[in-house]
Amino acid sequence: MLSAMEIDKDIELINLGKRVKEIRLSKNLTQFDLAVRVNKDQQSIHRLEAGKINPSYIYMLEVCQGLDIPVTEIFNNKEL
């Protein structure tokens, strides 16, 4: 059982991925489109959206830049 101060990393990464996907889709971008914008491969974006990677701060800055949003928008979500 998690204490009030502990974070379930798996759940947080899944929620982060869902948020990235939600924003990407709202901008009518495919995973490939976003990957090209941030100089990553499509599989990297897929793994991010699936919650399979723990992205670095720089990676998230690049993704936000590719989505044309401030980094705070990614974390402006009740689930995160």
Structural write-up:
This protein is an all-alpha fold and 80 residues long. It has helices at 9-26, 31-38, 42-49, 57-67, 71-75. It has one domain (9-75): 434 Repressor (Amino-terminal Domain). It is built from 5 helices and no strands. The model has no long low-confidence stretch (mean pLDDT 91).
What's the short version?
Helices cover 62% and strands 0% of the residues. With 80 residues, it is mainly α. The chain starts with 8 loop residues before the first helix and ends in a 5-residue tail after the last helix.
β-strand amount: under 5%
Q: Stretches where pLDDT falls below 50 for ≥5 residues?
A: none
Structural class: mainly alpha
Based on CA inertia axes, which overall geometry fits?
Answer: globular
Q: What is the CATH superfamily? A: lambda repressor-like DNA-binding domains
Give me the CATH fold name: 434 Repressor (Amino-terminal Domain)
Instruction: Please state the second-level CATH architecture.
Output: Orthogonal Bundle
CATH class: Mainly Alpha
Keywords:
80 residues, 434 Repressor (Amino-terminal Domain), DNA binding, 5 helices, Lambda_DNA-bd_dom_sf, Cro/C1-type_HTH, Putative transcriptional regulator, mainly alpha
Summarize the topology.
Layout: H1 9-26, H2 31-38, H3 42-49, H4 57-67, H5 71-75
Helix pairs in contact: 2-3, 2-4
Domain HTH cro/C1-type: 20-74
GO molecular function, one term: DNA binding
Pfam families: HTH_3
